Amino acid sequence: MQKLNLGCGKNYREGWINVDCCGQFKTDVAFNLDQPWPWVAESIDEIYCGHLVEHIVDLVLFMNEAFRVLKVGGRIEIKVPHYGHPWAYGDPSHVRFMSDESMFPFSKNAASFRHLGITCSFILKKTEIIVDKPRGIPGEIRWVLEKGK
After folding, report:
1. In the chain, N or C: fewer CB atoms in 10 Å?
2. Tens digit of pLDDT for each residue in 13-42?
3. pLDDT band at 116; cut points 50, 70, 90
4. What gap in Å lies between CA 42 and CA 22, rounded to an integer?
5. Which helix (H) or strand (E) element contains residue 84?
6. Is 33 helix (H, G, I), strand (E, B) or coil?
């Protein structure tokens, strides 16, 4: 089973292929994900992206590549800071703010976005807003998307 932990940072996962572009963290592969990925089509079972996608410049390329490398039935889990949380604004390397609707254009029900170069058509399995309990506001958004047949 092949699993990618993209943008691993300090979150090194045993049994996963840990990928990050920064040389300051332990990785298995040092790679900038703002370009076509080195993995073969339909070779990956699972992808995890914890606080990575808000740093990706070309989100269309990123999501198309995730779809390409995932096997049918493979899943990608994405976690990002909610656009209304201070975390979203506190990091100067963030290139986008995201809401619970941000993954819809990459779903199979979003044909109206295909003119943007989106070739993936994920099944959106779960959207979750995680509350920052001490502040009482949305803190993170978590999606689980699946590559269907």
Report:
1. C
2. 999 999 999 778 999 999 999 999 999 999
3. very high
4. 26
5. none
6. coil
Q: For the domain that residue 99 is a member of, what is the CATH number?
A: 3.40.50.150
Domain count, the chain: 1
CB atoms within 10 A of CB 15: 8
In contact, 104 and 40? CB cutoff 8 Å: no
| 136 Rama sector, left if φ>0, alpha if ψ -120 to 50, beta otherwise | left
Compute the C-alpha angle 70/130/53, nearest 5°. Answer: 40
Measured distance CA(109)–CA(145) in Å, rounded: 13
Residue 10, domain extent: 3-146
Closest CA to 74 of 53, 47, 51: 47
Alpha-carbon span 46 to 60, nearest angstrom: 19
Q: Compute CA distances 57 → 53, 54, 95, 133, whole Å.
A: 9, 8, 6, 30
Radius of gyration, CA atoms only, the chain = 15
Spatial distance between the Cα atoms of 65 and 129, rounded to a whole number of angstroms = 25
Q: Are 75 and 142 a contacting pair, CB within 8 Å?
A: no
